[in-house]
Amino acid sequence: MLHLDPKDKEKLIDPLFTTGPTFWSVIAILLAVIGWGVYMYVRQLIFGLGETGMQRPAYWGVYMVNFIFFIGISHAGTLISAILRVTGAEWRRPITRVAEAITAFALIVGTLQIIYDLGRPDRFLYLFTFGRMQSPLLWDAMSVTAYFLGSVTYLYMPMIPDMAILRDHCPESAPRWRKKLYTVLALGWRGNKTQWKRLEKAIAVLAVLIIPIAVSVHTIISWILATTVQPGWHSTIFGPYFVVGAIFSGIGALFIAMTIVRKVMGLEEYYRLKSYRNLGLLFIAMTAIWFYFTGAEYLTLAAGQQTAEFPVFASKLWGEFAPGFWLMVVLMAIAFWVQVVPQILPKKAENSFLFKPGLAWSSGVAAVAVFLVMNFSRNQPLAAALSQPNIRLIGWIIAAVLFVVGGLGFSMWLKTRQVTAIVIASVAVVIGMWLERWNIVAPTLTHPRLIGFWFYHPTWTEGALTAASFALFILLFMVFFKLFPAISIWEIAEGRAIEAAEAQVEVALPEPTGVPQAAHEGFRK
Amino acid sequence: MTRWAMVIDLDKCVACQGCSIACRFENNTPPVKPSEALKGRAIRWNDVFPFPTNPLEADAGEYPETKQRYIPRPCMHCENPPCIKVCPVQATFKNEEGIVQQNYARCIGCRFCTVACPYGVRYFNWQEPEWEGTLNEHLNPDRIEGPGDLEGPAVRPKGVVEKCTFCIQRLQKAVARAEAEERDFDPVDYQPACVQTCTGKARYFGDLDDPESTVSLFEKSPRAFRLLEEVGTHPKVIYLREG
Ligand code: SF4
Ligand code: SF4
User: Fold this and answer.
1) Confidence check on the interface: ipTM exceeds 0.95, yes or no
2) Best mutation site among B46, B86, B113, B117 for ligand 1, i.e. most ligand atoms within 8 A of its Cβ?
3) pTM of the entire structure?
């Protein structure tokens, strides 16, 4: 019988064996969405990919965007949790399990996107039987497979001691198959010294191995685009740009998942502010790096003004893709703002008029109003006036200033709510990163060299399959955490032991240098 | 060695689109409904369109002071084709005579090649192909088939990519005829349908490795140019500039 802290039992084990009606209703909703997706997919199989909005030249669309997005999300997990393990970051303990689960499920859902996208999904296995090494798609198939196998192992290995705990502490009322499941998964774990030693070693080796695989996965995805000669894709920066984006969106997804688990299961004591704060620092750094890469990429396109590339660039900045592009930029700016500004504002600022909630609300509403008038005004003379470039520019500046003023007031409110701020940032980043992938894939495809420019409108088929993919992702997550504890119990216990030990140790402070000692020794100053 | 190539003299092209029609009937390219064509799903192995397509490059001017150019565009059968490099299953490949082939029985429909080809000459079957009425009875019966291999004009299933093959079935037939008649194969016997049909006699076809062939002579013309030379694909379709 393995030892289990009674608090851990109550918080982490007991909920696994009690299921409330909310759980089942959420599952039912998710299944309904998935059912809709299955229906639409069967239609797509029968009638062909013509059911989607794709055409010539937009040969790829939302499926490809989703693919890049989900594989990006998958970097949450293993990569982050591996880096944190390798660097011995203590605050990682409560978050590794969630991070690793995200990886495994995002990879499953991401790979599904490729299958939706194939004209002949029945020939999917040709990738392995007739694979051609020169194709980046094959590199991708290999690296994703390796990453998937690696991350599933990496998710499973640290779970073994927990499985043994569950096996020993499975309540009598639990269904028999569950006990059996835990027994099998525990692989006869007894928790003796040799077993611990081997496990620790295996985890350490895998954590190191998985980092290069994870980096290769998103680099190769970027190469799918960058190895073509298409305008806007053929860029050397894409490898690191995609990896950064992937880790960035991965952290966002991790924060969201972590917070949901924390709230729903009431695990506030486990997910301490420290984990949020430290991972938050990494998040802020990623935001800055993302802005740097994006700026570098677009500046060179803008300055080069090449005939084929410039239309792609123009379509994003002021053409038909501009709404999506600027929404992405604003979301990222918000993500940066809500994390940084509340922290650097002094407490005293509260008294300044700039930070009063009233002003914040009114300027926020005014910003939205200016934005709406500028873009959706039906009033003839007004619309005519607004179509002049100078007036438009002034309008945009006013909207931006109002927006910033609104943000200032809001920051004061966020100052004491760090978790809320991080969740806002995460949601913004996850949506922003989806848009980023959209802004990379769609504009280039619709602005080819020798085909007239076009636009791509996704249809309900793509919408349904996207919704179903997200539903499947959440469903896998929920079922998984109904079967297995959301936090690695033994790692937490180990962390506690380390903390307790640290509290015992008297840290040898450097002896006070100074005169008394010297005087005692007979020295004189 | 042989390297099949085509020359298109833009001075003689009258943009009648006869080549497009000839290609459609020779290669059974499936027609699509007008509503689908409007969505950009028409399949035209041999397209004739105003050039350039990029509005930033167009210097057409205001009516009536306009300059309009048209360009007929088959597959370029590039010497260095980006399309075959990206195909994960070798459904498209260059044969030893320089023709870029497409195997419908192998293609998994990932559309990577359509995305990689800078000329936009590759088409995807978004639906099951259909022919109306009697058209159905007059499909070209030629097909190139083998185990795991389906090429040429054979009717394509939905979900695969297709493109101009330089009428590779005509090459096979010409070789077979020469064999049956117990004589050497003469390159003159092989001509794609578009070349044969061209109203303005603007197209020439032949072996680029034979220095005496028409295409070789035209290749040296100062009027000769290739499409998008800057992307490094080295097309084997050579255009002769207007004027
Ligand atoms: S024109 Fe396009 S399809 Fe034809 S060989 Fe070149 S890259 Fe391939
Ligand atoms: S669509 Fe077919 S021919 Fe094109 S790259 Fe994919 S498998 Fe190869």
Assistant:
1) no
2) B117
3) 0.92
